[in-house]
Amino acid sequence: MRKAFLMETIIKGVLAKSTLQDNDKSKFIAQLLKRTAGLDKADAAVLLDLALELKLSGRSLLENQTADRIFLAVSIAHRDVFWAKFHSGWLEAITSATTTYHDFIRNIPLIIAVVKRKQAIALTDDEKQEIERNMEFLQQFGETRCITANEPLEYAIQCLLIFMYTSLPDTRPLAMASYIEFLVEHLAIMPIPASSSPGCASLMAKSAINLLEQCWSNGRLSFRPDNVFITIPQLFLRLSDDQRECSLGVGYLLQAVPDVHTSVVDPFVQNLDAAVLWRLEFTVQRLINWLVTTDMAGIGVWIVAIMDSLASRGEFALLRKLADGNAYKIARQLAFRSRRNDAFLVLKFLLIGYHHSPILFHNISKDLVPLLVSCRKSPDDRDFATDVCNLAQTLVIHFGDSDDVGTRVQKARMFLDLPAVTRAEALQTMQDYSWKRGLQIQGTTAGSKRKPAFVQPLGKVGLVNLGNSCFMNSALRALFCSSDLRQAVLIDTIAADPKKIMTLRLRDTFIGLSTSRLSIFTPLMLYKALPEWLNDGHQQDAAEFTQILFSRMEDEDPASKRALSSFHGAIINQIKCSVCGTVSSNKEDFYHLTIPLPRSESADIQDVVGIFPSIEDLSDENSNKYFCDECGVLQNAKRFTMLGSLPQNLILSLNRFEFDVKRSQRMKISTPIVLREMIHIKVQDSHETQAYQLYAVVIHTGESAHHGHYYTYARDDDTLAAGTQGLDPASSTTWLLYNDTSITVSSFDAMQQKLANSRTDTPYMLFFRRTDTAPIQQKSNADLSKMTVSNL
């Protein structure tokens, strides 16, 4: 009898022996498999057949473990046999045969075990390449057959897929939105008892959350931090479904999302159709129920974020309903150390916002005083007591001291030697936490009815006009189309910091524009972060907004210079005295380049940018003689202006507005411009020119410099990428017209035609990206300082 058949008989006999404990069986089989090295190839193949039989039978955990032991023993002792048995053809055959529920349950664990062993023993380049093909094959299998399929997946199959994605990371899908939706859905239907604590969550819940965290971490090239913006709407939509139960797994997922990402809640709520806002009541109520029944730390900040956004939409009746039904039971959680921080956040929001009546406060005040008195054990207790006492004092000052509530609060305060709240401090707190504080913005009501959501072309997202904020929207759209800036801002992991508010708000806006599930986005927080003179509800300048945005970002965080580096260039100004020949030179850095516009019937953009390098006479005739330090008097001179270095992304601002001395006001220069998709610019002393491709145009419409409207034409990102790789830029290029919330498909020719037919619609800011069609060598700062007019 061959050795393999003998070993097979012994293993089957041991597994069937009812008088032996599983632990004893396992130890005996492990000892027996140590003899695998002494088998020939045929016997090793027989053992692999036994392992397949045990793995596919699914009769017991011990049989499954035995199969894994055989795979391990044979793969180490006879790796060539293992590799020949489980070649790529075997993998393709077994996945093709996996069609039914039972097929998945039986085959997926086997596939995972085999591929993991192949991965562990792969040595040669051919074997490693086969592993890569196996991973790609399983990736496509999971994506097409499961993740993006229209049919819902059984929970057990979901678990197997998560096991595969955890065990074999390279098999994870590339269809990120569908993948995230799958993971959120799995957590939402996961059977976790209501009494569970986060530490008792199932291994599969932890695995699913870990996979989502990896999506947010930018750990792989296909993953980006703004995937959290895809996750949270999915999570809230699941929480708001009143027709289905929602597992605590969603709560544990919410715990895992960093607090900084509560900033995505407001854009999500603001862009919901008013007809479905009532569903958020179920979302908040479910979260409150978890707060008062489980130790789910960190959930309070999310409850407040949703309710705060509802307040900005004017949903006060819904908030009062939530307050009436939940304030008392939330207050009772203040007695539990593990829940009190979250409970206090929510309670403070409800009580201060519910300022029209003292009923809620009086109903819970009798429980607050004993709670205060008990907080004497540790510094943490004292800090918590201070917060609760300050809240109670504030509400007493607001509502008045009825039923001796104020007297009891003051006695507790003095007993614990806590600080007193002044009337001015109480008033400020009431204003800061008022539900109505974010309702109005320059005549625009955040809580007013909005148009129903609709689908924008190519999954783009429109920007809501907050009242003459088109200057901001048009520039933001062009900046968002600047891929270098967009990527740098989106992958920035900057933490919430009041000193970096502009950078944070720009990132939030870019995240909103990246979320194709939203048809429109409200850039309210970015608008509020602007200087008051720029967000006062009057029409402002799009180029000036861009200047201030870049300047604020630089001032807030020096690291922002990296995000802005693609726009950085330099101008060299040199003046040569006509008498002594002395040359003075200075360098001016720029992020966007303002160039003069001729007063004429029309001008070609190539001619407009052709002013560099330029020469200007400084003389009596021009009333601008130059004071020469060497000569010590005013002398005739020549000023040379040239481009010292060119940026990757070039913003050209056409000087359309000038001050008219006679009229004492700014006037618009309405000279029409003939645009070109490609322009060429000369740098300093180079005889070559650098090619630039147009990708966005901010247009001002109107006859006056003081009012009008801004909108933007921009190339679609995909066709832009293709254009920069040497393709004809005019071939089948898609352009889009962005006019606040309105987005329409257009073309370069259609834009040209529109501008040609209108004297009031004029290009103002032009955005170009450098191409590689005519490269020139950029000069260092040291090189720039050595340039002289003789180079011209």
UniProtKB/TrEMBL annotation:
Any GO BP annotation: protein deubiquitination
Protein name: USP domain-containing protein
Residue ranges crossing the lipid bilayer per the database entry: none
Gene Ontology molecular functions: cysteine-type deubiquitinase activity
InterPro entries for the chain: Papain-like_cys_pep_sf, Peptidase_C19, Peptidase_C19_UCH, USP, Usp38-like_N, USP_CS
Coiled coil: none
SUPFAM superfamilies on file: Cysteine proteinases (SSF54001)
GO cellular component: cytosol; nucleus
All residue ranges annotated as the USP domain in the record: 461-771
One Pfam match: Usp38-like_N
